[in-house]
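Reviewers asked in the last cycle whether our approach scales beyond single polypeptides. To address this, we selected a multi-component target totalling 279 residues and predicted its structure end to end. The input consisted of the following lines:
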Amino acid sequence: MITAEKERELRRFAADIRIECMKQFRAIGIGHVGGVMSICDLMACLYGEAMRVDPKDPHWEQRDRFIMSKGHAGPAMYAALALKGYFDPKELVTLNQPGTNLPSHTDRNRTPGVDMTTGSLGQGFSSGLGIALGCRMKKLQNDVYILLGDGECQEGQVWECAMFAPAKRLTNVIAFIDNNKLQLDGSVEDVSGVHDFGGKFREFGWQVIDVSDGNEVSQIMEAIHQAKEDREHPSMIILNTKKGKGCFFAEDVFNHNIPVAKEQAEQALAELTAYKDSL
Ligand SMILES: Cc1ncc(C[n+]2csc(CCOP(=O)(O)OP(=O)(O)O)c2C)c(N)n1
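The resulting structure, written as structure tokens, was:
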């Protein structure tokens, strides 16, 4: 359980992350708004509380790692990193512009705090498990956090990972599925019929934790605590989220990379700021 004070702090951090994401989209006029907004609460929990990291020393060997396997959600990670002091928040508006350190998909060679280059769905999960195995071989006491999209789980590679992590007893892995039920071109159910992620991962040997509201920081933190307590299995936390959460023109819209008009961005920013001020 987190304190009421910590809960408020994380909610406000999540609101700030959404605000900084919207400013990034406003600057370039387009973005993966839905897939970004659905995970801002998770970013707040990871960078605001759960992860052992040092923004002044992004390569600190003992640090926890985070792999954004649904790499198109880079802007949410960039906002969290900038707000935590990895780099100057002024850089955020360079998102995806020529010469930027912030490409739309996360790139470990560009951005301080990004541990793996991602974007080709499925591959971040494999890389993350490789990193977890490497950390364990080095006897590091850290955890490796990995975030997958629910549509991403249609990749066959994801199910190789589902087998691999329990087989190698990668108990330092805490993975998440952003279960917002929507993908690029429709609902996940319609596109592939993949469902019951919990049952499937449990069957492969993972500890599965279902979070009924994956946009609620107290529930996310509770799940992470539970994951950390189990050192017998890798953990898969299923976050039931809302795609586009908090953004009036993107909530529950499946479209992937959407145009963002200046007026839409201004209205969204006003709403997000009013929400933050109400917390
Ligand atoms: C291997 C691969 N195939 C296809 C794509 C194109 N693509 C990018 S995002 C996406 C949909 C992902 O859906 P989901 O994982 O549910 O993420 P969300 O839209 O909810 O953020 C697709 C098909 C890709 N990036 N990589």
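The chain has a mean pLDDT of 97. We regard this as preliminary and will revisit it once experimental data from Aim 1 are available.
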